[in-house]
Specification:
The structure is a homodimer of 332-residue chains.
Chain A (H helix, E strand, L loop, with lengths): L13 H4 L1 H10 L7 E3 L6 E5 L2 E11 L11 H18 L3 E11 L5 H17 L3 E9 L4 E9 L16 E5 L4 H10 L6 H8 L5 H9 L4 E4 L4 H12 L2 E4 L8 H9 L5 H6 L6 E5 L9 E8 L12 E3 L2 E2 L12
Helix pairs in contact in A: 3-4, 3-7, 5-6, 5-9
Chain lengths: 332, 332
C-alpha cells in the first residue's frame, strides 16, 4: 500500500505548493482564542497567561537541511538551534526566559554527542539568561532538533513586523553574509578562513542590541534568518510599505570581501540573501538616534507604485534585486 | 568519512545507554536559573514570566515510532500529538493556553495531508480552550510532529510527582489499556473492534477531571503515557513512597476483555503497561472525596523494605509485577 501521506501528484506536495503557501494555508485554518495577543505570522506569538503577555516561538533544525554533522560539531548545532529561537524572541522584543527541546536521533547516535548538543543549547541560552527547562527524546532516521522558547515582554509592547512607517530609517545590528560566506567555504571543501567558518558554525547574535532597540521604541524588527531582502519583504508586506536599501551603506566584512574576491564571486548576494547570521533588522523613526550596534542601511517609503505581491517592495539602490532574495527549504 | 554523530561502539549509543539514562545525563548538565520554579523531571516545567508562573512542556511524535500513517489518519496524528502535550500540562495542574508545533515532513508529502494534521492539532487543543499560535515546517526523511504547550496555573501551586504521601489513596481518571488493545488489533491486521482502534487513534482524555483534581488539592499526579506502572514508578521515585495497586479495583473495559479473550491474551498487561490512553493517575489524601471521574485503584505506603531503584516500588496485589511495566523507544 502506498503511504497515504505522500502526494499522488507532485503539484499537490509540500514542495509543489511551496513551503510558505502551506504555512499560510495552515495558519488560515487556526482560530485564535481570546488569550492570543499576537497571532501566528510574526517572529513569535504572544499569549496572555493569567494576564501576563508571554512570547512563544518554535524552530526546528534538521540534519542535511539546516546543518551537516560533518560541518558542525554537536555543540555548534545546539548553539545554532537555540540561537534561531532566541533571536526570534528578541526580535519580538521579548527577553528569553526558558527553552524546551525535542531531539530526534537514530538509536545508534553517540550518547556523548547528544550531551554536547545539550551543552550547546545550554551555553547559547545562558548568553540571554534563559534556562533549558525540559525536553523530549525520540528515535528517528535523521537528527532533528526542535527548540521552543518563551520570553518576557517586561511590560513593553511586542515589536511587530507591521509597525514600519514611511519615513522610517532601516537599520541593522549584527553580521550580514558572514555565515553564508562560511557555508560557501565549507561547500568547497575548505576549513578556512576560520573566522567565516566559525561565523556559520556559531553565529554571534547581538541579542543585547535587539533588546535595547525594543526598549527604545523601535517601530518594527525581525531577525535575519531567511535573508535580508526576504525578511525586509516580510516587514513590507506586514506594514504595507516599501523599503529601499543603499548598498553603499551595508558594511561588507573584510573576510567576506576577501573570500568573494578569491572565489571570483560577488559578495553582495551573500549579504543580501544569506541566512544564518541572525542579525536584527529594524525600522526606527527618522529622527531617532539609533541604539548602539545598529547602523542605518536604508529607508522606508510609502507603498505607492510598487507591487503588493512581496519581494519587489524591497529595492536595492532603487532597483528590484535580480538575484535570489532568500532561502527556501523543500527544494531537495 | 563516518558520521561523527554515530557511536563507534554500540554500548555508547543512545540505545546502548538507554533513553532515560541519556535524558538524566542531559538534565544534570543544565543549570536552572532563578526564574525556574519547577525544573526538568516532572510532566512539565514551570517558569516565572514577569512573576506569573507558566507551565511549559514539549513532546515529539515520529512516524514509525509513535504512529504509522497507514494506521492513523492525519487528523488523528495531529490530535494525538496535541493530546500528549495537553495531558502533560493538565497533569501539572495547568490549564493549556497555547500550542506551537514544528512539523518535519518529506517534500513529497501531500500538502492537504499536512493541513489535516493541523486540523487535528487545532481540534484537540480546542477541547481545552487552547489555541495553536505558531509553528515551523521543515523537510526531513520521516514525518515528525513536535508540540510544545504553555499553560496557566491560575494561582494554584503546580501538581508535582513528588507530593504523594504514605496513606494516600491512588486513583485514576480515564481509560487504561484501551489504546494498547487497539494497537494489538491493528498489529494483527484488523480494523475492529472499532471502539478500540478509535481509542488508539483518537484517545479521549479526561482533561476536565485532571484540572478539577488539581483545583481540589490532589497531592501528586501524572498522565499515563509510559504505562500505568512505569508512571506510578515515577511518582514513587519522586515522592519516596511505594504504591500498591489492587487489580480487582481496576476496571477492565468490556471491549478490552473481549479482545483479550478472542486473542487468548491476558488483558492485564495492556492495562498495567500500555501507554497512549493518557489517563490521569493521582494520589489523594485518604479521606478526600475523589473528584468526578476518578476511581480508587490502590494506596500509597512508606518506602520501607522496598528497593529504591524504581519499578519494584510499585506492586500489584502486594507482589512485584513480573511483566513489562511500560514502553521504551530506541528499541529498534
Amino acid at each position: 500500500m502506498s503511504d497515504p501521506s505522500t502526494a499522488q501528484n507532485a503539484a499537490d506536495s509540500i514542495h509543489g505548493r511551496g513551503e510558505f503557501a502551506v504555512i499560510d494555508a495552515i495558519t488560515r485554518r487556526l482560530p485564535q482564542g481570546e488569550a492570543v495577543s499576537v497571532p501566528p505570522g510574526d517572529d513569535a506569538a504572544v499569549v496572555r497567561i493569567d494576564e501576563t503577555p508571554v512570547a512563544v516561538t518554535t524552530d526546528v533544525l534538521v540534519a542535511g537541511v539546516h546543518f551537516r554533522t560533518d560541518w558542525s560539531g554537536p555543540d555548534d548545532i545546539g548553539r545554532r538551534a537555540a540561537a534561531a529561537t532566541l533571536a526570534d524572541l528578541v526580535a519580538m522584543g521579548a527577553d528569553p526566559v526558558a527553552l524546551v527541546v525535542a531531539l530526534v536521533a537514530p538509536p545508534s547516535t553517540d550518547a556523548d554527542w547528544v550531551l554536547r548538543v545539550a551543552d550547546g543549547l545550554r551555553d547559547e541560552a545562558a548568553i540571554t539568561g534563559a534556562s533549558v527547562v525540559g525536553g523530549d527524546l525520540s528515535a528517528g532516521d535523521r537528527i532533528a532538533v526542535t527548540v521552543t522558547g518563551i520570553g518576557s515582554l517586561g511590560g513593553r509592547v511586542p515589536v511587530l513586523r507591521s509597525g514600519a512607517m514611511a519615513g522610517d530609517q532601516v537599520a541593522v545590528a549584527g553580521r550580514l553574509g558572514w555565515a553564508e560566506a562560511g557555508l560557501a567555504v565549507l561547500g568547497r571543501g575548505f576549513r578556512s578562513p576560520r573566522v567565516l567558518v566559525d561565523a556559520y558554525r556559531r553565529p554571534e547574535i547581538p541579542y543585547w542590541a535587539g533588546l535595547v532597540a525594543a526598549a527604545s521604541g523601535v517601530h518594527a524588527m525581525c531577525d535575519v534568518s531567511d535573508g535580508l531582502l526576504a525578511d525586509l519583504g516580510h516587514i513590507c508586506t506586514s506594514s504595507d510599505v516599501r523599503i529601499n536599501i543603499e548598498s553603499a551603506l551595508i558594511e561588507i566584512g573584510d573576510p567576506v570581501a576577501s573570500v568573494a574576491a578569491a572565489y571570483g564571486s560577488d559578495p553582495l548576494p551573500w549579504v543580501l540573501a544569506g541566512g544564518h547570521d541572525h542579525a536584527f533588522v529594524a525600522a526606527f523613526a527618522a529622527d531617532d538616534e539609533l541604539p548602539e550596534g545598529f547602523t542605518r542601511i536604508g529607508d522606508v517609503g510609502p507603498p505607492t507604485g510598487f507591487d503588493a505581491a512581496g519581494g519587489s517592495m524591497v529595492t536595492v539602490d532603487g532597483e528590484v534585486w535580480a538575484g535570489p532574495s532568500g532561502h527556501r527549504h523543500f527544494d531537495g
